[in-house]
Amino acid sequence: MSATINERNILRLCTDLLRNLLPDDWNAQAGAYSGDRYRGVDGELKILTPDGDTALFMVEVKRALNRRDIGVLARRLGEATEGTPAMGVVMAQYISPPLQEILRELNLSYVDTTGNVMVTARRPALVLRDRGLSHDPNRGPGRPRVTLKGEPAARLVRTLAAENRMWSARELVESSGVSTGATYRVLEYLQEEELVAKTADKRFTVTDWPRLLRRWSRDYSFVENTQTYRFIEPRGLPSLLKKIAQQDNPNFRYAVTGSIAAAQWAPYAPARAALIYAENVAEAAMRWRLRPVDDSTAEAANVILGEPEYPVVFDGTSQTKDGYTIAAIEQVAVDLLSGPGRNPVEGEELIEWMRAHESAWRR
Fold it and tell me: Containing domain of residue 257, as a range?
C-alpha cells in the first residue's frame, strides 16, 4: 500500500470494503457531497437496500488520522448531520485501536483501508463490523513491532498510570527501574498509539490513563502472565481472607486482586473466586490450608493462586481494614479487564470509580 495514497482513493477503497461486507442485493455508493445544506464534509456515502431504503452518511476522510483530529472531525460531522437522518463516518488509511474506541464512544462509524470497519445505521437497521490490521502498515520495513508485553512495559505502564505528572525519560527510567533503551521503545510505541504525548521540552504525559490501562490489558492478564493453580477453601472466601489476614507476614509476598480487591473501592457483586498473586504458591497453599483440586472437584475451585512472571504486581500494594494485602488499584483494574466472565464489566466499573476519585489513588 502506498504511503502517498490520496483521499479520493481512500474513499473508493473503503467503499469497496463496505460493499464486500454487504449482502449481495445491497449496494454502497460514495462520492462528492451532492446537497446544498452543508459543504464542509469530504463526501457522502449511501448504503442502499433492495427495498429502496437508503442509509446516508456524511464522510470525513483522513490519510493519517491522529487523536488531535478527532475533535474537529466530530464537530464537522455533527454540524453536517444535525437535524437530518444522515450519520457520520470517518475513513482513513489506518485507524489505530485506541482511535477506533474514541470514535465508537462518539457514535461515529469508521472504515480504514486495512479492513477495520464499524458502520451502524438506525434505518435501515444495519451493523457492519470487521477487523483489519492492529498496526499501521506504513510504519516502514525493518522496524520491530513493539507491544506492551513483558516486564519493562508493565513497569512503565504502572508508573505512568499511578502518577499524574510530567516525566522526563530519565525520571521514568529511575522511577520504573526499566532500562533506557526499553523506556524509549515503549514511549515511542505509546506515542504512536496516542496514549502518551511529548511536550516541546521533551517531557512525557499520559493523555488518557483509562485507555492506557485498557490497552495494556490486551497484552497482559493474570492467567497468561502467571503460573496458575486452583484450590478449594471449603469454608468459603470470608474464611480464607480471615486466615490470610491473621497470618500476614512481611517476608511472604502475596497480593489479592480481582473482584475481592476491587470491592475495596467499587463493590460490584459478591466474588465467586479469589485471585491471588503469590510469590510461592506451594507455601501459600500450605499457610492458608487450601485443598488442591482434582478432576472430581475442579468445578468447586474457589481460589486461584498465581506465581507472577515478574514482581511488579507486588509494587504499590496496600492493606485493607480487615488486614489482608491487595494489589495496587491500576493492577486490579487490568486484571479484571483481561479476566473471564463478568470480570471485564467489573473492570469498567472500577475504572469509573477511579475516574470519579482520581485524587484518592493517583499521586
Answer: 226-361
Which amino acid type is present at position 68?
R
Find the helix or strand (DSSP H, E) in which 337 lies.
helix 329-337
DSSP tag of 167: B
Domain's final residue, options 217, 238, 260: 217
Asked if residue 119 and residue 21 are part of one domain, the reply reads: yes
- CA pair distance 103, 189, nearest whole angstrom: 21
pLDDT band at 2 (very low <50, low <70, confident <90, very high): very low
The answer to whether residue 273 is domain-embedded is: yes
Question: Can you tell me the distance from the alpha carbon of 18 to that of 134, in angstroms, rounded to the nearest whole number?
Answer: 19
Please check whether residue 156 is in contact with residue 310, taking contact to mean a CB–CB distance below 8 angstroms.
no
Q: pLDDT digits over 231-283, tens only?
A: 999 999 999 999 999 987 878 999 999 999 999 999 888 899 999 999 999 99
pLDDT of residue 39: 55
The burial class, CB within 10 Å (0-12 / 13-18 / 19+), for 333 is buried
What would the pLDDT profile of 7-60 be if each residue is shown by its tens digit? 888 999 999 999 888 988 999 998 876 555 555 678 899 999 999 899 999 999
Residues 70 and 119 occupy one common structural domain: yes
Kindly list the distances between the CA atom of residue 12 and the CA atoms of 22, 28, 99, 112, in Å, as whole numbers in the listed order. Answer: 16, 10, 21, 11
Residue with cell 526499566: 178
Instruction: Indicate the length of the chain as a whole number.
Output: 363
Question: What is the number of H-type helices and E-type strands within the chain?
Answer: 13, 16
Q: Cα–Cα distance between 289 and 292 in angstroms, integer?
A: 10
Nearest-CA neighbor of 114 among 10, 30, 23, 8?
Answer: 10
Are 259 and 186 found together in one domain?
A: no
- Confidence (pTM): 0.64
The answer to whether residues 213 and 295 belong to one domain is: no
| Whether 196 and 300 share a structural domain | no
Cis peptide before 250 (omega within 30 of 0): no
Residue 61 host element (H or E)? strand 54-62
Q: How far apart are CA 242 and CA 320, in angstroms?
A: 11
Q: What are the CA-CA distances from residue 234 to residues 117, 289, 298 (Å)?
A: 48, 10, 13
Contact, 64 vs 191, CB < 8 A? no
- Closest residue by Cα to residue 155 from 348, 333, 330: 330
190 domain residue, yes or no: yes
